[in-house]
Specification:
4 helices, alpha+beta
Amino acid sequence: MKTTLLILICLSAVVTTASALAPDTRVFELRTYHTASPAKLEALHARFRNHSIRLLTKHGMTLVGFWVPTDADNGRGTTLVYLVAHKSREAATASWAAFRADPEWVRVKAESEKDGVLAEKVESVFMSPTDYSAMK
């Protein structure tokens, strides 16, 4: 029993040390969706709330948060901004490819856009945390 406990403690120390030495390859993606109207934004919220969040998570993405601008000159009523974390840039590419090919997503997107696209423009910015970031 003591030997097993000692082995477990040693393994834990090795895993912790290896994790501390492994480079942090995470990237964060800031996505901004611009809609034509408040009605389209509400439909976009519904799609995220009811479908997209679960599907994005299913395909390996970590959703950090969602926001809407509070100022009219910055898109209040027509803009959605969210932040997603990926294990690496390569993981992001693979996750997005799997998400876009998911039959459920294809169906949900088509149904939600039967009266026209929800987002007229989507911006994506990939970012790495600085050495002094709380995200490190």
